[in-house]
Every structure is written in structure tokens, then in C-alpha cells.
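Quick start: load a record and inspect it. Here is DNA-binding transcriptional regulator, MarR family:
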Amino acid sequence: MAARGPLPVDPIAEAKRQWLAHGWDEAAPGMSVVTSIIRAQQLLLARIDAALKPFRLSFARYEMLRLLGFTREGRMPMASAIARLQVHPTSVTNTVDRLVRDGLIEREPHPADGRAAMLVLTASGRELVDRATDALNSDVFAAPGLSEQDTADLVRIIARFRKSSGDFTEPRPLPDPL
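Running the structure step on this input writes:
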């Protein structure tokens, strides 16, 4: 796909104008927010893909490696990875298969459940995910394209939306130590 410059008009603003012109006044703001979020996701994913390309990682493969890298021993049950990544089990299985094939993680039998598998980060997987994280931090996360205040506001707004959509609940307070 050939690179192109900015469009001369905001297509989402034009779509909203059309929604209003067609009498869909109640739906126009919602259409604008949904399509704006989807477009922002596309823009951010393009930046992520560019940062991860030198490492031959997709974002899904990176997330799995980073998740394992965050654990104390670089290992976790596959079922836990599926729950934390919030994607379909088949997608996780395909991602794991590729990472195993590339020698970045290993599958081991679960110590207590013979039907389950443990995912284990290899030394080369840890080295790769650490380098990829450095690239994402410098090329994407450190400067997401918003001011610090806009970033904080947007995270709060989206968190409220996610929570009201049933994506997560507030953690229960932990008891005071004895």
C-alpha cells in the first residue's frame, strides 16, 4: 500500500455530518466515538507493528512473551495465559505453537493437572521480549501522540467504559495485616 499524506477532511466528522443529515441524530455521537476508537486502534497498531517488525513478532506473540516475562519464573499455566490475554483459546494456541516452533517458549506438563500445559519462557525468548519491549517503550509507549493530561484522561474514560461493559471489576480490598 502506497504511503499517503493526511486526508483533506476528517472522514469521521463527515460521517457524523451524514448521520445527522439522514436524521440519525441520537446515533451520530455514538457512531463518531466508535469509529474514532477503531481508527485510533488502527493507527496505534501500525506503530506497534513497525516497532516489532525487526524482531519478527506480531503484537499477539509479543504479549504472550511479555506476559511470561512478567512472572517470577517465566512460566504459567496455559489456561491462565488465555484468561489474562482475553482472547479466544484457539488464538492463544496458535500463538503458542509459533513461539514453541521458534524456540521462544516451551510447553511442559502441568505439575498437578495431567490435562493442562505449562508455558515456559526460554532464555532466547526472554532476551527477545526484553529487546522488543525497549523498542516499544521508545517508539510507541513513551510518546503515544497525546499530552500527558490527555493520556491520563483517556485512560480513565476508557477504563470507565470497560468497567461498565463488564470487562473487569474493582479488586476487593485486602484484609489488614495482623
